[in-house]
Amino acid sequence: MMSLVRAELLKVRSSRDVWWIAIVPVLVSAATTASFVGYATSAGGPLETGEPGIRASMYGAVFTATVLAMFYGAQIVTNEFRHGTATATFLTTAQRRRVIAAKAVAAAVTGVVLAVIAAAVNLAIAVPWLASLGFEINILDPEVGGVLVSAAASAPLFGVLGVGLAALIRNPTVTIIVAIAWLFFVENVLMTAIPASGNWLPSGAADAIAGNRAVDITVAPIWAGALVLLAWAAVTLTAGQAVMARRDLA
């Protein structure tokens, strides 16, 4: 198994898209952090009304890391079909489930890297911005460090989610469309119609892990959010493994 994981990590490092793994998180993190900090410091925003505004400012790192981790996790699988290497990859090991499991581990590691990049960019922008407005930031404060640590906890699981989703769908374009539709449309519709449903959805679980209260719902405890997100990742990955084990690679 470890040889398969090393092989998948090597593919990530040697991919032609590897620079995007480093550049895109920086650009997206900068944009989302600016958006979240701008919201938190706006007139009538969390910092003015006494809501947990520092946490809202830091939440950009969680948002960026989880979304990108899911996309990169999906890419680890779909690249095999896009580049025509799927047959060779899955024939090398008799059990396709183990290959998907190795890709999930590689996606989880990539998720941690993305979380670190997102957190670093978040701090580089948010700390001086908030300090200029008179808000002192202590990275050991749960309002700050706790949220950033949650990004490192959520991103690997979203990476595994991406692998499972891609294994189910296989087509690169359809996989990304489904992921975007789910994260930015389906979940929002469900949480608007049934607010309590957010605690049972992946993004809502990430909110709970981050202790994010900058939303108009009752957020589940951190441990509950972790269990929900772990369940989503496990079920999606297991389903993807089952489908891939029976699917024709041609």
Which terms summarize this structure?
250 residues; mainly alpha; 10 helices; globular
Describe it.
The chain is mainly α and about 250 residues long. It has one domain (about 1-245). Helices cover about 80% and strands about 0% of the residues. Helix 2 (about 20-40) crosses helix 6 (about 95-130), helix 4 (about 55-80) packs antiparallel against helix 6 (about 95-130) and helix 4 packs parallel to helix 7 (about 140-170). It starts with a helix and ends with a helix. Mean pLDDT is about 75; it is low at about 215.
- List low-pLDDT spans: 213-217
Given helix and strand content, the structural type is mainly alpha
Beta strand %: under 5%
Question: What does the overall shape look like?
Answer: globular
Please tell me the total number of domains.
1
Measured between the Cα atoms of the first and last residue, the distance is 25 Å
Assembly category: single chain
Query: What is the helix tally?
Result: 10
List the helices and strands in order. HHHHHHHHHH
Rg, nearest Å: 19 Å
Percent helix = over 70%
Let me know the average pLDDT: 77
Largest sheet: none
Number of strands: 0
